[in-house]
Amino acid sequence: MGSVARAAAAVAALVLVALASVATAQMESCNGELPPVLAANYSGLACQPVWNNFVLRYHQDKNNVLRVVLSSMYSTGWVGMGFSRDGLMIGSSAMVGWIGKKGLPHIRQFALRGKSSSKVVVDRGFLVSNDHDHTVVVQQAKIYLAFQLKFSYRLTHQHIIMAFGNSIPVKNKLTRHQDKTSFTFDFTTGRASVDGSFPYGLRRAHGALNVFAWGVLMPIGAILARYFRRVDPLWFYLHVGLQFVGFIIGLAGVVAGVALYSKIQADIPAHRGLGIFVLFLGILQILAFFLRPNADSKYRKYWNWYHHWAGRLALFFAAVNIVLGIHVGGADNSWKIGYGFNLAVILVAVIALEFMLWTRWSKNNTSTPTY
Hints:
This protein is 48% helix and 22% strand. The protein is built from 7 helices and 12 strands.
């Protein structure tokens, strides 16, 4: 027991040392000296670590001029701080700084009018400032963005957006961010809180429900219908059950998407249009179940043709729209890798089962069964 106690005490001591180191590092991030070139105009600012290794120094005077120094660890690329009226990226304005390929500092205002590079417009936005008040300094692997902004009111709770990218902007064109965050910052108390304006949970629900429904359940149901009809009638009940459950879950995903669109008014017509088209095909497939002719009906072959191809089109465009949604939604790599792996497994399974099916048909010389 003595050795166990000593081991536990050692572990506890290591944990306390680690916590103390983290706390010290956070304090040093604010207690460290500013570069000498900034000391004259930006000394005496309030300081607060806000995100990752981002540190915000700030002060707003009686004339509502806000002095800001944003610092972060830096090797290459760009760093930005945006001011938003509603917590969303679109419609906000940002101060972005970087060191160019020739070693020259750059800091410019950008109007964030959309998520594509063409809609991030340099030297536009609602922030009021003078260019000569802006400075970018790199010292000891840290970048410092210093700027002054004039507001018509005293800032209290302000929606803030922060982001960084690893690629150096060329001709003032920002590359896609490597990471980003949004929060509400209280300039009177120095407290940052998670910004609830952007419905991240709703976005995740919309994506997860549709990926599970259209990307997992329905493809499995279609595979059962085409390749396992020898297991009769089990294949039919499994096929119908999976497609109905998938459609209900997918419909819930569509409802989440409509609610998400009403909140953020995202300008993604291709994703929205494909989603409506896939939902329309899904509704036709549900109706087809109730309108299915008897097996000996002369209309059955037309129903089979319609049901097969409408289902294949729905699954194909659903897969396209899932990939598009992951892209425009700015999902992290876990979504891309997860759905990519899922899609690869389904495609390999379909190819293998299709080969086995055609081999069996050629041996038996039988026609395709109907259902």
